[in-house]
Design a protein that fits this description.
With 383 residues, the protein is of the alpha/beta class. It is built from 13 helices and 15 strands. Pathway: Carbohydrate metabolism; galactose metabolism.
Length: 383
């Protein structure tokens, strides 16, 4: 495993020249062209299974602003974020509960935001077979393509590799199940494959599912960790933009079956750290540590982290298909905006009220800096 560009080359504008890989794996989703239906408004009632969440909050906001009626099926009354939606309380995996929501609300469109197993998908398909809707939008993941990506940036029609996680394998299987079921029932399916979408409740680092530790170190002026040489690409984007892309795919029936919904560019891990630095008003002091050194520690904090997922391969997903169909769409929420949203939300939850105790990443960075200083002093004394 290397930490560099793995065959991709940035052009002078900061983009990437395509890095082709030999075809392997498979591509289960067949690209199909379909004409647009009548203009927006032909479908106007949407039932969300789960939400409003990291991505779906802005989806629901836009649909409501466009005059849609929106209902949400979820387990608790909290977390509606002040949105004017009809609430159905219950478990989406209970077929009777789902059937009640379908028959009571009578949606034109169902948006499945929280499907992670084929068993969950089978419950939905049984309910929709008995109570049909015009369209189903499934929120999948860009991880279904398998890593390393066969092309940079990765398009929907490019060759796939085998899934590298249970999560991706399940999402892939759900895509296939929904395709078969929708072909049988005549329900028109749209598959959404989001990239990493950073928002109020979700921001990643190589060692954490939250960025609170990173923010705390930046505010304290302490050095922060970057894997390898910091040039590995990650597909960071703003969840608000992703949600608005999903809304556009709901408003009219799109021509294609599947769409990447991600940022319209990519950043290196170092650039990602500088996004958070700008959000808190500091210039990060970045410490590069070879990933091979970290793997050699054989610590569970490494093996169970996102280090391999975020740094073993470049992550960059093309949005050309979406852009061609919605040329007026603008990615208006920047990565810095998304980082600020995350920090503000975590502050509202009291995440920074008490000092955050040092974690594994803190100890690694401090030990590396101290060890490097000792090594440098030893070398200087001998040369």
């Amino acid at each position: 495993m290397g930490d560099g560009l793995h065959g991709a080359v940035r052009d002078r504008e900061g983009g990437l020249r395509h890095a082709q890989a030999h075809p392997e794996g498979q591509r289960p989703v067949v690209r199909r062209r379909r004409p647009h239906p009548p203009i927006r408004g032909a479908v106007s009632r949407a039932l969300f299974l789960g939400g409003p969440g990291n991505i779906s909050e802005s989806t629901i906001e836009r649909l409501l602003g466009g005059g849609w009626e929106v209902a949400v099926l979820k387990r608790s009354e909290g977390g509606l974020l002040g949105l004017d939606v009809q609430l159905f309380l219950g478990d989406r995996d209970d077929e009777a509960t789902l059937t009640h929501a379908l028959t009571s609300f009578r949606p034109d469109l169902v948006v499945d935001c929280t499907c992670f197993t084929t068993e969950q998908a089978e419950t939905v398909t049984r309910a929709l077979t008995a109570h049909p809707v015009a369209r189903l939008v499934f929120i999948s993941t860009a991880d279904v393509y398998g890593y390393p990506l066969s092309r940079l940036p990765m398009r929907e029609q490019d060759p796939w590799r085998p899934p590298t996680s249970e999560y991706a394998a399940s999402k892939k299987a759900i895509e296939e199940l929904y395709q078969r079921a929708c072909e049988e029932t005549g329900t028109r399916l749209t598959i959404v494959r989001p990239g990493y979408s950073m928002g109020k409740s979700f921001a990643l680092t190589a060692f954490s599912l939250k960025a609170t530790g990173l923010v705390a170190r930046l505010r304290q002026g302490r050095p922060v960790f970057s894997p390898g040489d910091g040039t590995t690409l990650i597909d960071a984007g703003a969840a608000r933009n992703t949600g608005l892309m999903v809304a556009r795919l709901c408003e009219v029936e799109p021509r294609e079956l599947a769409y990447n919904c991600a940022h319209n560019g990519t950043v290196t891990y170092d650039e990602y750290l500088r996004v958070f630095g700008e959000a808190v008003g500091v210039e990060p002091s970045i410490v590069h540590i070879p990933t091979d050194v970290l793997y050699a520690l054989e610590r569970p904090e490494v093996e169970q982290s996102l280090l391999r997922d975020l740094t073993s391969h470049h992550l960059y997903f093309a949005v050309d298909r979406f852009r061609e169909e919605f040329p007026d769409f603008r990615w208006e929420h920047s990565l810095v905006d998304a980082a600020r949203d995350h920090i503000a939300h975590q502050e509202s939850l009291g995440a920074f009220d008490a000092p955050i105790p040092p974690g594994f990443e803190d100890r690694v960075v401090d030990a590396w800096v101290a060890g490097f200083d000792d090594l440098r002093s030893g070398l200087l004394s001998q040369v």
